[in-house]
Design goal:
heterotrimer; A mainly alpha; B mainly alpha; C mainly alpha; B: mainly alpha; 3 domains; 2 strands; globular; C: mainly alpha; two-stranded antiparallel ribbon; about 75% helix; about 0% strand
């Protein structure tokens, strides 16, 4: 048996990679991919915990998370496409119309 | 005249608001109408405005007339003793079934100030009702302001007080900012932020009070025998000083005392004329001192009192000197306001009854002659178009009647005798002279400097009058200016009448404040310097009255009934008690001490407070029990006569006796009599050759005949 | 509860969802609906009103004291009270949108459908008794709002706002989900799998919970803090509020905060056993939020941005009520103060944005301070009512903003949170400056060339909104006892209902 702590540390590492990626990347598609990475790290944690205790509770949570992530993807990509249509560029650092 | 209208206080509050709402529904008065056309819009606005203001004034008069501050009410300590017409409803739910109450009540101070507010607002509305396109908005704002100010004077719950305190800011802000002079926006925001800063600290202090005491009722918090009071004063001393300091700071800023006065000149001068009159009505700071700060935090206020006295004297001098240096007529009056309010604050923080009564009366006076001056200046500005002193001059020749009215207000401001300012300032100075606190600050210097302030007020006011009214006419275009028209007479005359009424017949006005003064300054907190001959004289007067002279005719300037609110140890606060009472000079008068009077004059004289002999012509105020009328006539003789009867004096009191007996038996401080039978008793007996009475009459029975005809001295 | 009973328990949400679907389908399928300018709006308003009636008539049903869906949703009095507030806010948003969408040429039924779905999400946030339900409802609310923010497809600022909101919102959702996963791990005891159900969690937390649990809780708070625009997660708020269409901003500023803080109050009231862990952190966040929100608002010339920063500041004030839940003595008052402040804040912010909508016309969105200069000459009623909203936001009597502020002060002192109370006092002094500046510009300055007038399109809806908000601001300031039954509902949360 793989100890559950291995899974948990893997998901922690994935989560951290995702967070760093969101903060660093300039292309919104890449940023979104890193966000998906964070969500999947959480999914991995759910599954690992559920499996460790022998219940299917973890998988249930994952179903919720997957459905929500899918909805979010569709909306997010739609927004990105809209911007691309009017601007021909989706570089995040160029979106600077709103300044504090 | 006993008149009970239940809910009169809420009626007083909501009538102006209803009037303002109705007014805002009316169309704006037309602009530039021809004189031949009747401006129905203006007529409607004016009649609604004046009608509501007059209605509120009538209600305030009814309240004033129906209020009877009975000294017997002093049994309940603190503010609650004098409250009448109370109303109490659940208002804000505070969780856990606690409620903040909508608690209104009228005190001696309240009725006077409510009357002042409604009076001045009515006159201001009459003044605004001339042809003016903004009159609808101005009158509506004045009515809202009146409601808010009246609410401050009537609120008996700290949060309700705060709500009204802040609610006055909004109409004032809009009045100054929308209808004021060239720098109005700056003046308005400065005024708002200055006072708001103090108030938000006060809100924090109120929350702290609620936390420690569990109650926000001013009646409970000022009653030294209530659980709320004890709970509050069980808090750590430094916290209490902070809380009291926050309250004092808020009120100090509101009153524009010396370091925090910067908002006042701008606000007063940039406001329209009626706005300045309305601003003068912002006496909530002074009221806050006597209604909240001193009753709820007496010891802390005594600790802060030296600071306040210094600030007050600084205000007087600073205001006076700056007023003398101004070049704009309105600025002179604005700074004079700083000086006058400095006097009032001085009077309050002397912690003597003389001083406080004088302060509250001067407060009232200031609220009459300063609006008169501002409205007069407004009339002048309309005619001449300038307020620069170097451009004005010789107005007396052009507008003789107007200048006579202004002279009345000027003399009132200068505190000339026969005018109202005198009956306010003199007791303040006397209180400051006899106060232990002023002495601890700098001996006789504070009083001396304050008295110099009176001289300076003559300097700047008379000079102001001279520069405006006397001398050569300032400009040729002043030649044909019209004198006062009917509306302006209607505005100025009542104020002139009040100036004389207060100046000559002040007991009518002070009679209702007496129980309030004694509630705010019970004997335990009064602080009179004992080494002064005048104090001794007052003490002796007081003892003679305390010696069972039921009909002692001391006129109604001050409460003469001793009362006492023992602190938790059961004894009274004695600041400078001498071990041996120096033999008073007055003892060797011919009037013997009546038999039956216990030798209480040897006890700590401060315990009974100080009264001055009737300075004013004795008047009557309030209802007098009939049985005392018969005893009044020919007072000195009856004094002598009764004393000859010996022991029968005590029992003879007639219908009075049951009352005094009843009072004595319910009196909380039974041991007071015994505390006076100390080592000094023999000295007194030796001096007076009066046998000790078998039944000592309760020397401290409240004598509620303090409104008798004056003892002619 | 059976499934049917559970559905019955959340009938208002079901009604709103069905209304949303009806609007969506009707607009796309029925020609007459598409042609009519206000059919969608009217139908959605009807749905909101019906849902509100359902809530009001069922306030005392005993069924509602149980948890629905096997403990996942709490439908007790607290939820009913929050539902009422949210339905009120949603109704006002629909009214505002009836006017605004025509101005911007955005009159599409999807707007109302999304608005209704977002309301469903917010209501479910208030009812969530399980963290995963919280996650789903947060996402429901957020996704609908991402679309709404970018609804004006050709507006560059709007698109940018939508992108920013989407990216940062999903980022926070990731934190939230991972936090829930860690909580699941951290609440497992003695061989039993963990739980994310708040009720079960309360029983399982030891006095010193495991590191996993604390980490998970921290991440959950980060996620919720983002939604509520607490510092230091507030960076998105000004940009998004400014870029979104004004009617959407009104909804965002109110409903999202109400949902987020209701959820936060519920979570915190379950975690009072470990208050010594989260209280310092929340206190720091509260102080930071209040200070940053107010200081940054002072320099703004764009009214929408200024209102965004003021929303941030008000979130800080609400956090005081949340922090005060830590003290046993003050907890009922804290919950009550929080609920009242949510109601007050929702109404006054919605009113302020409604005035901005009222002043927007076809070509020009009313946004900057120049747009409203000297307004009192042309539109005196709008100017005075905006003044009422500004005074209410500033906490100046006699408005309900003051009553809310007083309740916060008293609750803070009772819970011995002196630092928070003093901070509240100090920032109130700063805040009054920028609120007064709006009144100053409107009433004291002269009209400039750019000052707008009222919108030319039928303004009935937005006028009704403004009047309702202003009337409630003043009435509740004078007679807060009117909503006392609702407030006493808040205290039931003490018993975890």
């Amino acid at each position: 048996m793989v100890p559950v702590s291995y899974y948990l540390s893997l998901s922690a590492v994935l989560f951290t990679i995702g967070v760093v990626g969101v903060l660093v990347k300039r292309n919104p598609i890449q940023v979104f991919m890193c966000i998906e990475l964070m969500l999947n790290a959480a999914n991995l944690t759910f599954i690992a915990l559920g499996r460790f205790y022998g219940t299917s509770v973890g998988e249930m949570y994952v179903i919720f998370a997957l459905a929500v992530a899918a909805a979010e993807v569709s909306v997010g990509l739609g927004i990105i496409v809209t911007i691309f249509r009017t601007r021909q560029s989706i570089d995040l650092d160029e979106t600077a119309l709103l300044k504090s | 005249m006993q008149m009970q209208i239940t809910g009169i206080l809420s009626l007083l509050l909501f009538t102006p608001i209803v009037g303002a709402i109705i007014l805002m529904g009316l169309p704006k008065p037309g602009q530039n109408r021809e004189n031949s056309e009747l401006d129905f819009g203006a007529m409607a606005v004016n009649s609604v405005g004046i009608g509501f203001a007059a209605l509120v004034l009538v209600l305030a008069c009814l309240l004033f007339a129906g209020y009877h501050g009975s000294v017997l009410g002093n049994m309940l300590g603190g503010v609650g003793g004098g409250i009448q017409y109370a109303e109490k409803y659940n208002w804000i739910p505070m969780g856990g079934h606690h409620w903040l109450h909508w608690h209104l009540g009228a005190d001696g101070f309240s009725v006077l100030l409510v009357l002042l507010t409604t009076f001045v607002i009515l006159l201001s509305i009459i003044y605004t009702s001339r042809k003016s396109e903004n009159s609808r908005d101005i009158i509506a704002l004045l009515l809202l302001l009146e409601a808010a100010i009246t609410g401050v004077y009537l609120a008996l719950n700290l949060v309700l007080f705060y709500v009204f305190f802040e609610a006055t800011l909004i109409p004032t802000y809009l009045l100054i900012g929308m209808f004021g002079g060239p720098r109005r926006a700056y003046a308005a925001i400065k005024f708002f932020i200055y006072t708001f800063v103090g108030s938000i600290l006060m809100l924090l202090a109120i929350a702290s009070v609620y936390h420690y005491a569990g109650s926000l009722s001013i009646v409970d918090l000022s009653n030294p025998m209530s659980t709320a009071y004890h709970a509050l004063h069980a808090a750590p001393a430094s916290t209490l000083m902070l809380i009291a300091g926050a309250f004092l700071l808020a009120f100090t800023i509101k009153t524009a005392v010396f370091p925090f006065h910067a908002w006042l000149p701008d606000a007063y001068t940039q406001a329209p004329a009626v706005g300045s009159a309305a601003l003068v009505l912002l006496k909530m700071g002074i009221f806050g001192f006597v209604r909240i700060a001193i009753p709820i935090f007496p010891q802390q206020c005594i600790t802060y009192a030296p600071v306040m006295i210094v600030l007050a004297v600084a205000s007087i001098l600073y205001g006076s000197l700056l007023a003398a240096a101004q070049k704009d007529a309105r600025f002179v009056i604005a700074y004079s306001s700083v000086a006058h309010l400095g006097f009032v604050v001085l009077g309050i923080f002397t912690f003597t009854r003389v001083g406080m009564m004088g302060a509250m009366l001067q407060n009232f006076n200031h609220g009459i002659f300063t609006p008169m001056l501002f409205l007069g200046l407004g009339m002048l500005a309309e005619r001449t178009g300038t307020m620069e002193l170097k451009e004005l001059g010789g107005i007396k020749r052009v507008l003789p009647l107007f200048s006579s009215m202004m002279l009345l207000a000027t003399l009132a401001s200068v505190a000339a005798p026969l005018f109202s300012g005198f009956v306010g300032e003199f007791p303040i100075l006397l209180g400051s002279w006899t106060s232990g606190i002023t002495h601890s600050v700098g001996g006789y210097w504070p009083t001396a400097l304050a008295a110099c302030g009176t001289i300076l007020s003559a300097v700047y006011m008379l000079w102001w009058f001279q520069r405006i009214m006397l001398g050569p006419v300032g400009s040729p275009r002043f030649k044909g200016l019209p004198d006062l028209n009917t509306r302006e007479w209607l505005v100025l005359t009542p104020m002139a009448v009040m100036i004389f009424w207060v100046g000559i017949g002040s007991p009518f006005w002070t009679s209702r404040m007496q129980s309030a003064v004694s509630n705010v300054l019970p004997v335990s907190t009064e602080n009179v310097e004992q080494s002064l001959p005048v104090s001794v004289m007052l003490t002796d007067m007081r003892e003679r009255m305390a010696g069972g002279l039921l009909s002692h005719p001391v006129s109604g300037f001050l409460v003469t009934a001793p009362d006492y609110h023992p602190n938790s140890e059961g004894n009274t606060f004695i600041p400078h008690a001498p071990l041996h009472m120096p033999v008073p000079v007055m003892q060797h008068r011919a009037i013997p001490r009546p038999v039956g009077a216990p030798p209480t004059n040897s006890g700590p004289p401060q315990a009974r407070g100080i009264d001055i002999p009737p300075v004013m012509n004795g008047g009557t105020g309030g209802a007098q029990p009939r049985n005392q009328q018969a005893l009044l006539h020919g007072a000195p003789r009856s004094l002598v006569g009764r004393s000859a009867k010996g022991m029968s004096t005590v029992s003879k009191g007639g219908p009075k006796t049951p009352t005094s007996q009843g009072v004595r038996s319910t009196h909380p401080n039974k041991n007071f009599v015994h505390s006076n039978q100390g080592p000094n008793r023999d000295a007194v007996s030796r001096n007076r050759s009066i046998p000790a009475p078998a039944i000592p009459a309760n020397p401290n029975a409240p004598i509620n005949d303090n409104k008798m005809g004056g003892l002619s001295r | 509860m059976t499934n049917f009973q559970s559905l019955n328990a959340i009938l208002p949400v079901v009604i709103i969802a069905i209304t949303g679907m009806i609007v969506l389908l009707g607009e796309s399928c029925l020609a007459f609906w598409r042609r009519s300018a206000s059919a969608s709006g009217v139908v959605s308003l009807l749905g909101v009103i019906v849902a509100g009636m359902v809530v009001l008539f069922r306030l005392d049903e005993p069924m509602l004291h149980y948890k629905a869906f096997n403990g996942a949703l709490a439908v007790g009095p607290f939820t009913q009270a929050c539902t009422l507030i949210l339905l009120l806010v949603a109704g006002l948003s629909v009214l505002v949108a009836l006017t605004y969408l025509d101005n911007r040429g955005l009159n599409q039924g999807e707007y109302y459908a999304l608005l209704l779905f977002a309301t469903c999400g917010a209501i479910l946030m208030c009812a969530a008794n399980d963290l995963i339900v919280l996650f789903v409802s947060v996402e429901l609310l957020s996704v609908a709002l991402y679309i709404l923010t970018g609804f004006a497809k050709t507006d560059k600022k709007g698109q940018e706002a939508a992108l920013k909101y989407f990216l940062l919102g999903s980022f926070a959702a990731g934190f939230l989900l991972y936090g829930i996963a860690l909580v699941l791990g951290g609440t497992s005891i003695s061989g039993l799998v963990g739980t994310t159900n708040l009720t079960t969690m309360t029983a399982r937390i030891p006095d010193t919970p495991s590191f996993m649990f604390m980490a998970g809780l921290a991440l959950v708070l980060v996620g919720i803090g983002f939604k509520a625009a607490l510092a230091p997660f507030h960076m998105w708020a000004p940009d998004v509020y400014e870029g979104a269409p004004t009617s959407v901003t009104g909804f965002m500023a109110t409903a999202v905060k109400i949902g987020a803080f209701a959820a936060l109050l519920r979570i915190i009231s379950h975690l009072t056993g470990i208050a010594h862990f989260w209280l310092p952190a929340l206190e720091v966040i509260a102080v930071l939020t209040m200070v940053l929100g107010n200081l940054l608002a002072v320099t703004q010339v764009n009214v929408k941005r200024m209102l965004a920063y003021s929303s941030v500041a008000h979130a800080g004030y609400l956090l005081i009520a949340v922090c005060a839940c830590s003290s046993t003595v003050a907890r009922p008052e804290a919950l009550q103060a929080g609920l009242f402040y949510l109601l007050a804040y929702g109404l006054m912010t919605m009113g302020a944005f409604a005035v901005l909508v009222y002043l927007s016309s076809r070509n020009h969105d009313c946004e900057t301070v120049q747009d409203i200069a000297g307004l009192v000459k042309k539109e005196p009623l709008a100017a005075y009512l905006m003044a009422v909203f500004m005074l209410s936001l500033g906490g100046i009597p006699p408005t309900m903003g003051f009553v809310g502020k007083w309740l916060l002060f008293s609750v803070a002192m009772q819970a011995h949170l002196v630092v928070l109370a003093v901070t509240l006092a100090i920032v109130s002094m700063v805040a009054v400056f920028y609120y007064l500046r709006i009144i100053w510009t409107m009433c004291f300055q002269d009209r400039s060339a750019e000052t707008v007038g009222a919108t030319s399109v039928a303004p009935t809806g937005v006028q009704i909104t403004i009047l309702i908000s202003a009337a409630m601001s003043l009435v509740l300031g004078v007679l807060p006892a009117i909503v006392y039954p609702m407030l006493s509902a808040a205290q039931t949360l003490v018993n975890h209902l």
